[in-house]
C-alpha cells in the first residue's frame, strides 16, 4: 500500500524547546507563522498535517479552515474531542468544511488522557465512561454522514429524534476517522468505527502486537489502517544527529528546571506505555530514542528517531514492514524540520515503498 505522511501545524512557534508558558501568552495566533508552516508541509510533499486539540488552544476546525484557504493540495487531520458539542452538530460542521476544502479533511478522535484538561471544558466523566460516550458519539456522527433518512437514537449519553443532515461529506462513504487510544476500550471502539488507528512511536515488536490486537477486535467485514507518530532528529552524519539529540534533551531539561516544572503524569495508557519503555531502555531497534519521554513523563508524541536521513528512512520503512501505512513525523522546530523531512526523508521512504510495490506486482504476476 502507498505510505501517507502527516506533519503538524500550530498557531505560533512553540515546542518542548520553548518556555512552557509560551503558548499561554498573548498573540497566540500568528497568521504569518501558520502560513509559513502550512506551505512548508505542502511544498515538502506531506499528505496531511495534524491540527491538535487542547482545552486552552484555538479551535482546531477553524485553524484547519484558515490553513486550507492558503493551500491547494495539503490535507488536514483535525483533532476532535467528543463530548463538548452535540454529535449531530459536529457531523454537520465537518461535512461543511469537507466541501469548502474540496475533500481535504480527516478527523482524529481523541477521547482524552488528562482529567484536568477534560474538566476545563466541564467534563467530569471517568476514563471508561468517556470511551463509552465516544462510542455513542461516533455512532451518531457516522449515521448523520451516511443516512438518507431521519433516524432516532437513544443511548446512555445521547438521545436524538428524527436526526438528519442535508449536508453530507464530499468524501464517500464519509470523512476518514483516525482514532487514538491504547486502552482496551479504545481498541474496541477504534476497531468498530475508525479508518486509521494511531499509535505513538513504540518499538517495532510492540507495534506488531498492537496491530494484531486491533485486527483481532475488528467486526467481520471491516478493515483498518495503522499510523505511528515519531520525532525524527537528523544529522549529516550519525555522530552529528546524536549530538543534536542530546543538545535537544539538555535544552528541554534546562527549561523545565528553570521553570520549576513537574509534569503531571498522563492518565493515558499510551503515555504509560511510553514511560515504561523509556525506563527499560534508552534505545530500541535501529534508532528509536526514549529519554525525552522520561523527561516529559510521556507527554504526547516524544519518542525520536535519531540518525542520518538514510538511517531514519530505514527505521520508518521498518514500521511500514510491520503494517503501518501512515507516518506522522514532526520535529522540535516545526518549520525547519518540515522542510528537512520533505527534502531528505519523504522522498527516500516513498522511493523504497514504490520499489517494494513494483516488486510485489512482479512476484504476483
Protein model, in words:
- The chain has 365 residues and is α/β, with parallel strands linked by helices.
- The chain has one domain (4-230, 307-364): Luciferase-like domain (TIM Barrel, Alpha-Beta Barrel).
- It contains 13 helices and 13 strands.
- The strands form two sheets. An eight-stranded parallel barrel has the order 1-2-3-4-7-8-9-13, surrounded by eight helices.
- The longest helix is centred in the C-terminal third of the chain and has 21 residues, at 238-258.
- The radius of gyration is 20 Å and the shape is globular.
- The mean pLDDT is 92.
How would you summarize what this structure contains?
With 365 residues, the chain is an alpha/beta fold. It is globular and about 65 Å long. The chain has helices at 31-43, 60-69, 87-100, 115-120, 127-146, 184-193, 204-217, 238-258, 269-280, 291-295, 309-322, 334-344, 346-364; strands at residues 4-9, 48-51, 75-80, 105-110, 151-154, 159-163, 177-180, 196-200, 225-234, 283-284, 288-289, 304-307, 326-329.
List keywords for this structure.
single chain; 365 residues; alpha/beta; TIM Barrel; eight-stranded parallel beta barrel; two-stranded antiparallel ribbon
Topology readout:
Layout lengths: L3 E6 L21 H13 L4 E4 L8 H10 L5 E6 L6 H14 L4 E6 L4 H6 L6 H20 L4 E4 L4 E5 L13 E4 L3 H10 L2 E5 L3 H14 L7 E10 L3 H21 L10 H12 L2 E2 L3 E2 L1 H5 L8 E4 L1 H14 L3 E4 L4 H11 L1 H19 L1
Parallel strand pairs: 1-2, 1-13, 2-3, 3-4, 4-7, 7-8, 8-9, 9-12, 9-13
Antiparallel strand pairs: 5-6, 10-11, 11-12
Protein name: Alkanesulfonate monooxygenase
GO biological process, one term: alkanesulfonate catabolic process
InterPro entries: Luciferase-like_dom (IPR011251), Luciferase-like_sf (IPR036661), SsuD_RutA_monooxygenase (IPR050172)
Amino acid at each position: 500500500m502507498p505510505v501517507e505522511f502527516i506533519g503538524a501545524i500550530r498557531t505560533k512557534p512553540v515546542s518542548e524547546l520553548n518556555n512552557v508558558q509560551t503558548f499561554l501568552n498573548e498573540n497566540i495566533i500568528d497568521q504569518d507563522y501558520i502560513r509559513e508552516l502550512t506551505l512548508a508541509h505542502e511544498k515538502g510533499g506531506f499528505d496531511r498535517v495534524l491540527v491538535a486539540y487542547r482545552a486552552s488552544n484555538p479551535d482546531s476546525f477553524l485553524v484547519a479552515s484558515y490553513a486550507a484557504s492558503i493551500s491547494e493540495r495539503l490535507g488536514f487531520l483535525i483533532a476532535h474531542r467528543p463530548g463538548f458539542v452535540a454529535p449531530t452538530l459536529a457531523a454537520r460542521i465537518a461535512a461543511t468544511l469537507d466541501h469548502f476544502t474540496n475533500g481535504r479533511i480527516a478527523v482524529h478522535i481523541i477521547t482524552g488522557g488528562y482529567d484536568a484538561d477534560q474538566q476545563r471544558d466541564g467534563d467530569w466523566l471517568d476514563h471508561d465512561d468517556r470511551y463509552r460516550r465516544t462510542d455513542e458519539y461516533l455512532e451518531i456522527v457516522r449515521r448523520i454522514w451516511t443516512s438518507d433518512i431521519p433516524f432516532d437514537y437513544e443511548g446512555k449519553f445521547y438521545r436524538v429524534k428524527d436526526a438528519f443532515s442535508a449536508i453530507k461529506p464530499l468524501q464517500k462513504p464519509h470523512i476518514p476517522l483516525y482514532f487514538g487510544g491504547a486502552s482496551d476500550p479504545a481498541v474496541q471502539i477504534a476497531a468498530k468505527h475508525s479508518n486509521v488507528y494511531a499509535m505513538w512511536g513504540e518499538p517495532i515488536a510492540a507495534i506488531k502486537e498492537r496491530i494484531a490486537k486491533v485486527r483481532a477486535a475488528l467486526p467481520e467485514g471491516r478493515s483498518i489502517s495503522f499510523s505511528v507518530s515519531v520525532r525524527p532528529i537528523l544529522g549529516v552524519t550519525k555522530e552529528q544527529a546524536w549530538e543534536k539529540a542530546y543538545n535537544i534533551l539538555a535544552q528541554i531539561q534546562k527549561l523545565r528546571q528553570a521553570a520549576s516544572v513537574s509534569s503531571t503524569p498522563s492518565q493515558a495508557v499510551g503515555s504509560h506505555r511510553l514511560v515504561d519503555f523509556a525506563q527499560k531502555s534508552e534505545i530500541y531497534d535501529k534508532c528509536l530514542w526514549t529519554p525525552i519521554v522520561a523527561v516529559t513523563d510521556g507527554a504526547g508524541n516524544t519518542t525520536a528517531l535519531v540518525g542520518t536521513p538514510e538511517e531514519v528512512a530505514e527505521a520508518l520503512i521498518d514500521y511500514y514492514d510491520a503494517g503501518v501505512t501512515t507516518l506522522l513525523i514532526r520535529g522540535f522546530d516545526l518549520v525547519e524540520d518540515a522542510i528537512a523531512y520533505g527534502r531528505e526523508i519523504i522522498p527516500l521512504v516513498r522511493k523504497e515503498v514504490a520499489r517494494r510495490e513494483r516488486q510485489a506486482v512482479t512476484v504476483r504476476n
